[in-house]
Amino acid sequence: DETEFRNFIVWLEDQKIRHYKIEDRGNLRNIHSDDWPKSFEKYMKDVNCPFKIQERQETVDWLLGLAVRLEYGDNADKYKDSTPDGAKNTDNTAKNAEPLINLDVNNPDFKAGVMALANLLQIQRHDDYLVMLK
Length: 134
What we know:
8 helices; RTRAF; RNA transcription, translation and transport factor protein
């Protein structure tokens, strides 16, 4: 809703983006003001956002991207050696990179799985379950 959107914009500016000095954020923080859209539009111009204020989703995505860039820039040493959670164990990563390589298509469990999937998706039965899988 509108109040949550305005609070979100103020939070991003206060906590992450910090484009304005604290004393210059008053108009943006006054979320109940009728002039808030004008303040927000000025803010978007000041941070060089390429979107119009009517394009809310795009604006939010762009502001989040700006906040992430600024957060990384402020703490580059902290984040430079970070890896995604799934990539921490390199042995498992290499092993799980291609899980279908070790798949045994002649296994009866595999055939039963294909049949169950075909029933679930209401796919017409075929004598060759590999054709049905395709």
